[in-house]
């Protein structure tokens, strides 16, 4: 059925790489350590920004695209199965995971889809050494996203990397540098850059029908509260290469909580709500606001209000970003049992919208003439006036499938993907800044969009990067 349109769409092409991206980090030595916090230095990768890549190596639809999955959890398995199921002439050759207990579901289902099972390997270098592999899905824990992506680019592979794309600000700067240097496609797992309703929401705002925008509020409120019960350090199971799982992080004894609940630890992620959930909404909010760059300052207040346990991350945060003409806020947590993500039934509907009042992933765009609600992952958008009358709207559909197909198409054509690395980085910076402000003591941080560093707190500025373990470094030279 043809979806009814309430606002005329402008023509929207694939997102290009912005030549004016402004990013930097603290200076790095050869070990990957921060040499000076808050260094005011023009980022080196901006010297080699490209809006397009060479078409050398482009493939025709009849050419087989060979892919591999790195990180075979439930989400990564879904990515690989979707590519095999929908992609034309696509082969999933490898399932790579350091944990032998993961990937069985993907192996079984992929054998049904493509008639043969992929090869199961532990070490991603096996995938990179196969010259026939065109691209990889990186669906590891967050602390591996940056290094796995950079290594893939160095090996001549295109990359689909899950969100948030990096563990810290420095990493995604280097990911951009690697993409430009090796002319590799990087599709970020920010699927909300694919559906047409996201662009029609942007165009409605740009038309002036909402008036002047003065505030935007993003919710990332998972159903909760969810307790955390840390386990004890134990002997490493024979089924996992724990040293490789830790990768860039410091060496610690095996602990099932670190392994299975890694998002509760700063060493491996940015929190299940703020990084895991909000990364989607923040990227969508930036898109409908016409892709603003970086904020002038950030302030995050939060804490553990529901559970007094040993998790690193807070169970609730409220973050404010100053964009000069408007304020963007992010509310993230896993505390409220009455909040819900948009159900899949509505994401696939051409007629229904989310229950906005208790929707935990809603975006509010507030203008002087009206208010817009935007739903992620197929939630669509609606505009209301002061009498709560709907004045414009458009439904949506779940963008996962077309987003993966866009990645496969870009491997063939060498065009830039809709979820390109530059915009993925800019959205990830907002997640990282929220957590840095919280970890610095709920302090307002002054941020330099030009140098992409924190100007008023050396401790906070040092968290733009991390100390990398020997053998797993990310340095300026990618």
CATH fold-level name of the largest domain: Dihydrodipicolinate Reductase, domain 2
Strand content: 15-25%
CATH class value of the largest domain: Alpha Beta
Structural class: alpha/beta
Distance linking N and C termini: 48 Å
Biggest sheet strand line-up: 16-15-14-13-9-12-11-10-17-18
Tally of separate helices: 13
Question: Could you give a short account of the major beta sheet?
Answer: 10 strands, mixed
CATH superfamily of the largest domain: Dihydrodipicolinate Reductase, domain 2
Q: What's the number of structural domains?
A: 2
Taking all residues together, what is the mean pLDDT?
Answer: 91
Describe what you observe in this structure.
This protein folds into 2 domains: 36-192 and 401-420, 3-Layer(aba) Sandwich (Rossmann fold), CATH 3.40.50.720; 194-225 and 241-399, Dihydrodipicolinate Reductase, domain 2 (2-Layer Sandwich). It has a 10-stranded mixed β-sheet. It has a 6-stranded parallel β-sheet with strand order 5-4-3-6-7-8, with helices on both faces. Strands 1-2 form a two-stranded antiparallel sheet. Strand 1 and strand 2 form a beta hairpin. The chain is globular. The relative contact order is 0.19. The chain contains 13 helices and 18 strands. It has helices spanning 74-86, 104-114, 124-129, 145-154, 169-182, 196-206, 242-246, 256-260, 278-288, 344-347, 400-413, 421-439, 458-462; strands spanning 27-28, 34-36, 65-70, 90-96, 119-121, 135-138, 158-161, 186-188, 213-223, 297-303, 316-322, 327-336, 362-367, 371-375, 380-384, 390-394, 445-448, 453-454.
């Amino acid at each position: 059925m043809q979806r009814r349109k309430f606002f005329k769409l402008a023509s929207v092409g694939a997102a290009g790489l912005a030549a004016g991206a402004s990013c930097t980090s603290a200076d790095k030595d050869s070990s990957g350590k921060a040499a000076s916090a808050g260094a005011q230095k023009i980022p080196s990768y901006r010297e080699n920004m490209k809006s397009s890549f060479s078409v050398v190596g482009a493939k025709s639809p009849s050419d087989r695209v060979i892919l591999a999955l790195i990180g075979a959890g439930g989400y990564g398995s879904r990515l690989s199965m979707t590519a095999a199921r929908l992609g034309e002439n696509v082969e999933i050759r490898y399932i790579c995971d350091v944990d032998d207990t993961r990937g069985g579901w993907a192996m079984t289902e992929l054998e049904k889809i493509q008639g043969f099972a992929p090869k199961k390997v532990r070490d991603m270098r096996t995938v990179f050494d196969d010259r026939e592999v065109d691209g990889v899905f990186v669906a590891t824990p967050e602390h591996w996203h940056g290094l796995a992506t950079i290594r893939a680019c160095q090996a001549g592979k295109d990359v689909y990397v899950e969100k948030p794309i990096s563990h810290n600000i420095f990493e995604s700067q280097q990911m951009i540098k690697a993409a430009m240097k090796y002319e590799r496609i990087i599709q970020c797992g920010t699927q909300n850059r694919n559906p047409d309703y996201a662009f029609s929401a942007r165009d409605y705002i740009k038309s002036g029908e909402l008036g002047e925008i003065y505030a935007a509020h993003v919710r990332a409120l998972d159903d909760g509260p969810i307790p955390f019960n840390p386990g004890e350090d134990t002997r490493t199971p024979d089924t996992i290469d724990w040293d490789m799982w830790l990768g860039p992080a410091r060496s610690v004894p095996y602990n099932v909580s670190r392994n299975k609940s890694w998002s509760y630890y700063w060493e491996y992620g940015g929190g299940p709500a703020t990084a895991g959930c909000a990364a989607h909404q923040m990227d969508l909010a930036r898109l409908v606001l016409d892709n603003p760059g970086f904020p002038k300052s950030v302030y995050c207040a939060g804490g553990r209000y529901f559970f007094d346990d040993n998790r690193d991350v807070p169970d609730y945060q409220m973050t404010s970003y100053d964009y000069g003409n408007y304020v963007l806020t992010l509310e993230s947590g896993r505390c409220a049992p009455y909040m819900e993500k948009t159900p899949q039934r509505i994401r696939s509907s051409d007629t229904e919208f989310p229950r906005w009042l208790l929707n935990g992933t809603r975006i509010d765009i507030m203008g002087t003439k009206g208010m817009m609600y935007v739903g992620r992952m197929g939630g669509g958008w609606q505009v209301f006036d002061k009498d709560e009358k709907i004045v414009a709207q458009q439904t949506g559909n779940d963008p996962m499938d077309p987003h993966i197909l866009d990645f496969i198409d870009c491997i063939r054509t060498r065009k830039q993907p809709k979820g390109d690395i530059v915009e993925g980085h800019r959205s990830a910076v907002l997640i990282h800044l929220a957590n840095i402000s919280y970890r610095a003591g709920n302090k307002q941080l002054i941020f330099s969009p030009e140098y992409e560093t924190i100007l008023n707190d050396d401790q906070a500025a040092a968290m733009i990067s991390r100390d990398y373990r020997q053998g797993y470094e990310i340095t300026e030279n990618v």
